[in-house]
Amino acid sequence: AKIRILSNKKAAKLRNFDSPKKRRVKMPWVDVEDSPRSKRKQGKRPSLNGLHKTPNRFSAPNGPSSPSKSNGSVDGPTKPGKSSSLQEQRRALPIALGREKLIAKIRQNDVIVLLGETGSGKTTQVPQYILESGIAGTRMVAVTQPRRVAATSLAARVAAEQNVKVGAAVGYSVRFDERSGPDTRIKYLTDGMIVRELLSDPLLSRYSVIIVDEAHERTLRTDLLLASLKGIQKYRSQPSDAKGKGRASLLNPLKIVVMSATLDAEKFSKFFDNAPIEYIQGRQHPVQIFHSAESQSDYLAAALRVFFQVHTDQGPGDVLIFLPGQDDIESLEKSIRLYANKLPHKSMEVVICPMYAAQAAGQNSKVFNAAPPNTRKCILATNIAETSITIPGVKYVIDTGKCKEKQYLARETGGGFDTLLTKDITKSSANQRAGRAGREGSGVCFRLYTEAAYNNMAVSADPEIRRCSLTSSVLQLKCLGQDFQELDFMDKPDYDSVVSAYKSLWLFGALNNSKELTPTGRQMAAFPLDPCYARIVLASKEYNCAPEIVEIVSVLSASSKLFVDVSDQRDSAAELRRKFRHPTGDHLTILGVVKAYQEIALAENKAGRREWCRKHFLNERALLEARDIRDQLKQTCARFGISFDEGVRADNNNDDAVLKALAHGLVQNSALLQPDGVTYKQTMGHTTVKIHPSSALSDRKHPAIIFNELVYTNQVYARGVSSIPKSFFLSIPTLNQRHS
Ligand code: CDP
Ligand code: MG
């Protein structure tokens, strides 16, 4: 199970792809083997995951030998045949060989760190082993995931392996969507959801084992969870006669399994007082890596070209293309469709499977099915396919070298807001991505960047806690009676970000002048929303406009965008959208769209609704998701006596109230028109911004604006903008205090 970088002269001579338009495009490749620099360093070339270098301490019970004898013989994707049952597939996973030893280790230790390469069976098998061996007792096993689509699709897989329905013995819980019940024993949740569960159950008493999966990603929520788990574990393992609340004694000790696909296990082990590290011997086949000879200015065009190069020249095997985000995925999907239709009839058919974090549950099941005969699956994925989801059948990987990363600009924005920036990936990601081609047989990875660019990449990413807004975490910890600075984190957060989080919460009225949690703060934390949106919902009670605000906030919290990107048909779309356009800007425009859709929904059938959305360049998925979110938010609202009796008003007499409520949450996202009449200066930051061209407001001047987010391109743009009278800021109590 060692990674070799093959020299394959035939593959090195990849023909330049002739696009169906007969335009000759050059896509020269350098085989890494042919480049003198790499030859020199070949011995030191980082392995695809480095796992083979680590001692094989986790192995078959009868000896330390490598478990995978079948390696060499496999060439080309080997899909589990129809005859092989799910149970056979389970037994064939690398992790299965060490099952008994692993169970014993978990039984003996309160914390273990489990390291194994992607696809070895950690996420799907470990929870089942724990359950089947009785370690879990009568309580539940939680498995945390950084992304919702991973949580939902893995729950579906494990439910199938256990031969139960999702929501029965195996369930999941992600924001705005829960499938679990009284019988649930294994629950896949996003790291955000388990942090939320802490608020109502601070000792996580429903669980006996918490599996912190994908720990190497170091998301803010995972770090927060790890820090909290340390304290919870200590409390729950107090002897039953210990003084205290007496509640701990009723609970069995909590077990923690930290799982990771990369080599940073030591750090986790240290954090948990030198917890033992277990390694799973993986099966990795050789992957041949090609770098682009020149840097590519347009990674989408390059990916398109290389895909068809592979598709027309290479043998069977599915293609996995790594892209930064949903937008790119959707646009590449369109282009591939377009060109694939123009290929000669005898070519293999292309089945495109998009895969990104925001996808709804169940939307991606075809990605796991084997491609039908004479078709090639083309999977367009974000870095979700790097380690959290293994897709069978992949032989070719095309890596754009880009990802989207949350970035917090505390100083620039003056507020607690994250932006998603498209960035270069790290070496660790690049190696993981390449590794995805060698899961089932030898594979090929095409990197759309030069070898020099690879060498310049950072080794691994900064943990999120050092680059994300901490506002919601500070608030959640406050609700648990803890202060962010006092918690023992693996990496200390940036001082500026902590200060900025406290400032935001104070401006929202969630903390008082002595940094104590207020009733408003506690209510805000109860909403599964970004704190600024939670504040807006609470303000809507005061201004009597909850039905309108909840509709708007639901659309803003949905994972898909409401307005379809229409860069190629901007004029006709603008024309059609004009009728929804509200003079005060984007927030009330959204409300107008929702109202119109609700009317259509009453009058039309499913096909009619879909057609209406298509005609108006609206994303129906966003509207449907928003409807579900709204129904959930209503339940939380009911707990705080926020009334929906009147419903959304048909006349627009409530517009001022809606804008006032919005101003409460977007107080830090506000700006005033500058004398130049074009730019706006932030009221609480130092940045000068322009209104984004996509906004309903972009063509006129407005004395004061509030906005949802800032977008950084060559310019700083405010997106999701409404115009408000300056006087509205005066209705916000903390602002008055600040200025008086
Ligand atoms: O967590 P780890 O990366 O170690 O592996 P896993 O997610 O447990 O996946 C083990 C195996 O299950 C892989 O071969 C996947 O392809 C397969 N799997 C699947 O076929 N369908 C799913 N929905 C999830 C996993
Ligand atoms: Mg996994």
TrEMBL record:
Q: Which GO terms describe its cellular component?
A: nucleolus; ribonucleoprotein complex
Q: Which Gene3D superfamilies match?
A: 1.20.120.1080, P-loop containing nucleotide triphosphate hydrolases
Chain spans, region Disordered: 14-88
The record places domain Helicase ATP-binding at 103-281
Enzyme category, top tier: hydrolase
Stated EC number for the protein is: 3.6.4.13
**Example GO biological process term?**
positive regulation of transcription by RNA polymerase I
Please report a single Pfam family linked to this protein. Helicase_C
According to UniProt, the reaction catalysed is: ATP + H2O = ADP + phosphate + H(+)
Q: Per its UniProt record, what CDD domains does this chain match?
A: DEXHc_DHX33, SF2_C_RHA
Entry keyword Nucleotide-binding: yes
Keywords from UniProt, A to Z, are:
ATP-binding, Helicase, Hydrolase, Nucleotide-binding
Family of the protein in this entry: Belongs to the DEAD box helicase family. DEAH subfamily.
| Name of this chain's protein | RNA helicase
